[in-house]
Design goal:
heterodimer; A: 717 residues; mainly beta; Immunoglobulin-like; Maltoporin, Chain A; 22-stranded antiparallel barrel; 5 helices; globular; B: 218 residues; mainly alpha; Serine Threonine Protein Phosphatase 5, Tetratricopeptide repeat; disordered N terminus
């Protein structure tokens, strides 16, 4: 009986507790061991974790056919059926790399991305807001990056030998027709959009996506923020006016309303200005942003703003200072942008929008009245998604329709008007093909039909990027770009061809733990630039051409020095063009050979302050002296500026902000302007174009009222 | 007769096996979880944490209806994030923590412990890049933690995390730490009286609160 018992028990043990040993080795595509992977016998607790050599081993009492699953971050899941019958099972597990945002190579040629969400960007939204000398102006901050040429009297973006109108701004993919507020002649203008509105900024100095058209040199792509999380009221008391904003947040949505009044008159009363103001600029601006989540994966955004600006000044004759006339400008601006995005499934999403811009400049020069009106509608729909884990596709269609009208009401002569309407229908497709996490090819093309000259066009764009190490990569970009000529040229000859540019860009970038190094070189070829026929501004054609080439360096480090962040940019530019009234190829007056800047930010805990300094240097720019033989043969002295800002946070809901440009009070000369007529000695009289004042001093107090007292306006500064 | 003795024996075997099927599953779950919770609390290295997280993920995937494995996997990933030096990887671990926590949330919505953990993730997000994330994520952290406290005012972990965040903000802006210290005291009181019917209920956080207490007493 004892024997029977034992046999019976043994039987139970063998059938009930039969064990299978499963072992194996996990490697990646190159045969390198993958440690810490999770080995799972599906639907059981059994499994283990691979060791440092990628080996694993475990035993299971399960029987029959089961699935063995191996998973690890950055790799695709591996599955294999295993038969468990007591015999040891040995499996070699080859894991296949997954293309993922964190590891994959990125196309960086020409692109500077600033985002709070994406992790490997060079810039953050806050960086733009806290750059000294920029006074929270997006263009001002971007002017400290390589690829830009500082043009102090304009304040706009000039990229790689391109004119400022070659750089276009897009908000949520929709074009903005005039992104800058009006300013008096030879005084810098500011962007109409404040950095705090955006969660991401992508500044491209060339070779950008086929999604963006009508920009020859640069695309500044701004992504507006999603809904606010918190109800709050923000009040700003500024040395040049004031603003108040209120945010109402609810679950899944929010609305923000802001009104700002700027009056620079009291300030100009205190600080002597080079400009002879009759009425210094006063502006009233209002903006509102509505955000609503729709369903689980939809988001609706509506943004609108209006601006009314007025000023008047006396322009003095170059030949005789006492001879002057009054120039008065009233600018009205409205911008409305509606944007919708929706995930269709976990692979595809659709986004679309409509933007409307209206702008009118009503100017009185002496006794003549010039009214310039531009209206534009831009509508666009884009589908984005992945065809497989290695192929991403973006495709869309858009229509841009604008009308331009200029009326001259002349006190002494016949009135006249010039206008044109333009409709551009466009479509684009672009695919990112990943060979591995190390290599990506982006190929795309943009198709446009323009009704002004009744012309179809196709512009190819291609970029490649290869990861040379864990932190470094090289990329290359090529593209063809076109843009309708400036309004003041098209109104003369509406059948002008668009101006064209071709970009070739080579980039190396290394980002390692808060240190970034970039070097980029490029060649840009211009064709079909608008030219005056035989120097006659009333007859224009597309006979112009030009080039720009250069090399740029960027270094950023916010690790080495405690509480300190700094970046250094250098750009070398060689550019010449033959356009407009140029008799032959020469360097345009806005182009400077060397641009250098250092931005330094330091947080001082003991005084609860962030201090910032920005130093910029721009080598001399050409100017045309009609008394000299050579066209654009003159050269201004070099420009330099040291700016300072100070943000003081005495309480979490209160910020005191102070900034000053040109601390050293350098008398920068931007160029020279000359009389159109020779004087009695046969010489054209000239005078320098100077800064309106050596320094600009700004003080602001920002208060945030909310239920949660820890919130302040720091991100909005 | 002796052969008949086998019958009760067989019956016993059957009963034991059947009952094993019924509640042994649960005791197997309890046992595996308790052992592994101990591992995740005591793990020092990223490798040890990953091993514990892997086990939680296996249990969670097999069980399907239990929130605890995903909750602790999330906790493990947060700990891994705090031990990692590189910012991008810290974020990657926090993403995994969020994914796991979302699975727990689907099984058990509106749970104070799970929402407190969400606040914990947001708080670590701030620490990855305080200057640029502070304003947004600090507010979000406060909001999430207050939500956890609103659901269960006795949750000592939610209070301890809130105290930590208040302390961080007070220190950053050089303000009085009185509010943070009061929250710390409330948290410690709740730790002293914390009771749960669930043997797998979270236990962590008391040391953190005690650490803050000693800072408050200085």
């Amino acid at each position: 009986m004892k024997l029977f018992y034992s046999a019976f028990l043994a039987c139970i043990l063998v059938t009930g507790y039969s064990q299978t040993r499963i072992s194996g080795k996990i490697t990646d595509e190159r045969g390198v061991a993958v440690p810490l992977a999770n080995i799972v016998l599906v639907d059981t607790y059994d499994g283990t974790t691979s060791d440092t050599e990628g080996n694993f081993e475990f035993t299971t009492t399960e029987t029959g056919t089961k699935i063995l699953l191996v998973k690890f971050i950055g790799y695709k899941d591996f599955q294999r059926e295993v038969v468990l019958e007591g015999k040891p099972v040995n499996i070699a597990v080859p894991l296949e790399e997954m293309i993922n945002e964190l590891e994959a190579v990125m196309i960086t040629a020409g692109a500077f991305a600033a985002s709070d969400e994406s992790r490997r960007t060079v810039f953050k939204a806050l960086d733009i807001a806290t750059t000294a000398g920029a006074t929270a102006d997006i263009a001002g901050a971007l002017n400290t990056l390589p690829g830009t040429q500082k043009v102090g009297e304009s304040g706009r973006l000039f990229v790689r030998g391109g004119d400022s109108n070659e750089a276009k701004t897009f908000i949520d993919g929709m074009i903005v027709l005039d992104a800058y507020s009006p300013s008096a002649p030879n005084t810098p203008s500011r962007g109409r959009f404040l950095p705090f509105m955006f969660k991401g900024t992508s500044f491209s100095t060339g070779g950008y996506s086929a999604e963006y058209g009508q920009a020859l040199s640069s695309a500044l792509v701004l992504d507006s923020k999603d809904q606010s999380e918190m109800t709050r009221t923000d009040i700003g008391i500024l040395s040049v006016g004031g603003d108040v904003a209120h945010t109402q947040a609810w679950s899944g949505g929010s609305i923000i309303g802001k009104i700002q009044y700027t009056n620079i008159r009291p300030y100009f009363g205190l600080i002597n200005q080079e400009v002879d103001w009759e009425k210094a600029p006063v502006s009233l601006e209002g903006s509102s942003a509505f955000r609503q989540q729709i369903g689980k994966d939809g988001m609706l955004k509506v943004y609108g703003n209006f601006n009314h600006t007025n000023y008047s000044l006396y322009q003095h004759s170059i030949d005789d200072y006492n001879s002057k006339f009054l120039y008065e400008l009233t600018n009205n601006y409205r911008y409305l942008n509606g944007f919708y995005k929706q995930s269709l499934n976990d692979k595809w999403m659709v986004r679309g929008g409509v933007s409307y811009t209206y702008q009118q400049n009503d100017a009185f020069a002496d006794h003549d009245n010039i009214v310039e009106t531009e209206k534009g509608i831009h509508a666009k729909t884009v589908f984005e998604g992945s065809l497989s884990d290695k192929v991403e596709l973006k495709t869309g269609v858009e229509v841009l329709q604008r009308s331009y009208d200029q009326e001259y009401i002349i006190s002494d002569g016949d009135d006249y008007a010039r206008s044109f309407d333009e409709t551009i229908a466009g479509g684009f497709a672009e695919a990112d093909l990943y060979t591995s996490n190390k290599f990506v090819t982006r190929a795309g093309a943009r198709l446009e039909y323009n009704d002004l000259m009744n012309q179809f066009s196709v512009d190819p764009r291609i970029s490649l990027a290869y990861k040379t190490g864990t932190y470094s990569q090289v990329s290359f970009a090529y593209g063809k770009f076109r843009q309708t000529a400036k309004n003041e040229l098209v109104r003369i000859n509406p059948t002008l061809d668009p101006e064209k540019a071709e970009h070739f860009i080579l980039n190396y970038q290394r980002i390692e733990n808060n240190r970034t190094f970039r070097v980029e070189t490029y060649y840009k070829k211009y064709s079909d630039l608008v030219k005056y026929e035989n120097g006659n501004a009333a007859a224009v054609n597309n006979a112009g051409s030009g080039y720009a080439k250069g090399i740029e360096l960027f270094w950023r480090d916010n690790r080495s020095l405690r509480n300190t962040d700094y970046w250094i940019s250098y750009s070398f530019l060689d550019t010449k063009r033959n356009y407009l009234n140029y008799p032959y190829r020469s360097t345009p007056t806005f182009a400077s050979k060397h641009n250098f800047s250092v931005v330094y930010k330091y947080f001082v805990q003991s005084i609860k302050s962030q201090l910032g300094f920005t130093y910029s240097y721009t080598s001399g720019r050409p100017y045309n002296n009609p008394n000299a033989d050579k066209f654009n043969g003159g050269k201004t002295p070099a420009y330099s500026d040291l700016s300072f800002n100070w943000s003081y946070l005495p309480k979490p809901y209160l910020i005191v902000y102070l900034s000053c440009t040109n601390l050293l009070g350098r008398d920068n000369i931007f160029g020279y302007e000359y009389s159109t007529q020779q004087n009695a000695e046969g010489i054209y009289n000239g005078r320098p174009i100077r800064q309106a004042a050596p320094r600009f001093l700004f003080v602001g107090i920002f208060i945030t009222l909310s239920k949660d007292k820890s919130v302040n306006q720091l991100p909005s500064l | 007769m002796k052969t008949l003795n086998i019958i009760p024996f067989l019956i016993a075997v059957v009963i034991v096996s059947v009952s094993n099927l019924v509640f042994a599953n649960d005791s197997k779950y309890m046992e595996a979880m308790q052992k592994n919770i101990h591992s995740v609390y005591t793990a020092q290295s990223i490798a040890d944490l990953q091993t514990a997280v892997n086990t939680f993920e296996r249990i969670g995937a097999a069980e399907k209806t239990k929130w605890e494995p995903f909750y602790y996997a999330s906790f493990g990933y947060i700990m891994m994030s705090t031990k990692e030096k590189e910012a991008a990887k810290k974020d990657a671990y926090l993403d995994l923590a969020t994914t796991s926590l979302n699975k727990a949330k689907e099984i058990l919505p509106n749970d104070s412990e799970i929402i407190a953990m969400e606040g914990f993730i947001n708080m670590i997000r701030v620490s990855v890049d305080p200057a640029s994330r502070g304003p947004q994520y600090a507010a979000l952290t406060m909001q999430t933690l207050n939500k956890a406290i609103a659901i269960d005012g006795n949750n000592p972990r939610a209070l301890a995390l809130l105290a930590q965040m208040q302390l961080g903000i007070a220190q950053f802006s050089g303000l009085s730490t009185a509010e943070a210290c009061a929250t710390t005291d409330r948290s410690l009181e709740k730790f002293a009286t914390f009771k749960s019917d669930n043997p797998l209920a979270p236990q962590w956080g008391q040391q953190m609160a005690e650490g803050m207490k000693s800072k408050c007493q200085k």
